[in-house]
Amino acid sequence: MSEKSTLEWYRRKDQPRYERFYDGGYGGDLLFRARTKSLEHLAMSCQRGNASRTRKQKHNNSIAFKNTMHDTSKRTLSINSLEISEVCQRCQEVVAWKVKYKKYKPLSQPKTCTRCHQKNIKDAYHTVCLPCGQELQVCCKCGKKEDIVAHKAPSKIEKLQTMAELETEVKRLSERKRRTYYRFIEKLEGKVKPRKKPGNTCDDGVVRSEEKEDKEDEAPLNMDEYFRNARQKLEQLMKGMEDDDIDEEFQDLKLSSDDELEDDEEDSDEGEES
Description:
The protein is mostly helical. Among the domains are: 3-38, no CATH class; 74-136, no CATH class; 153-194 and 219-259, no CATH class. It contains nine helices and no strands. It has helices at 3-12, 26-37, 74-80, 89-100, 130-136, 156-170, 175-189, 209-217, 223-273. The longest helix is centred in the C-terminal third of the chain and has 51 residues, at 223-273.
């Protein structure tokens, strides 16, 4: 039934109250139809989705989305290799979602930090620069004090500078301490295989949980932990070397005092004989 015939039908039924909702326009047509069906259609629903729906999703992809399937440009590849660091767990998931589904928009120029007010932000969606975030221990995206998922890895220049500083300090050590330090570094790098401990097995022949825990603890270290452990070991060796030097000085003083006492005794004996 057309709109014109519908209006004439209502006029024949002597129902003029519906005519004021029809003014010939698109909006008037909607109001006319809504009025004829029910007044409930005029009220807008405030429900956020169908929470009680039991049916499965109507459309489901057979192949997962891949952002490099049709786009293998340098920009897409550089965004995929992006390092998401100095952010909390939620912000890390948000940025990772943007990268995965090609919604990530990198910055064209540095952004201003909300803490130091300097143009130091080079990562998109960040509000705090890396130095301020590390100093204040806050998330660089949301600015809240949350647990940081991953820290920024040092650059190649920073790695070389740190290695050079460690080497200059190692040269000050004695030969024995130096070998101890290099053995520790080889263990950190995983070049030395750990010695096998005797298997702690029960009567049933089942391996105890201690060996399983040891296997779980053997995980590769990142560069931050590597340099931190190397620095701590070097400080321990330097402190031990200082303690050894102090002990040697005390021994030298003791020996010199003993020699002086012996000389005094010999002089006194010679005086008595004369």
